[in-house]
Amino acid sequence: MGRGLDWAQQPGQVVVATRNRGKLGELRRLLRPLPWRLLDLDQAPGGAQVKWEETGASYRDNAVIKARAVCLATGLPSLGDDSGVEVRALGGWPGIHTARWMGEGVAEDELLRGLADRIAALPAKERQGTFVCALALAAPATKGQPILFVTEARVGGSLLAEPRGRRGFGYDPIFVPEGEQRTMAEMSQAHKDEISHRGRAARQLLEMVA
Question: What is the pTM of this model?
Answer without folding.
Answer: 0.93
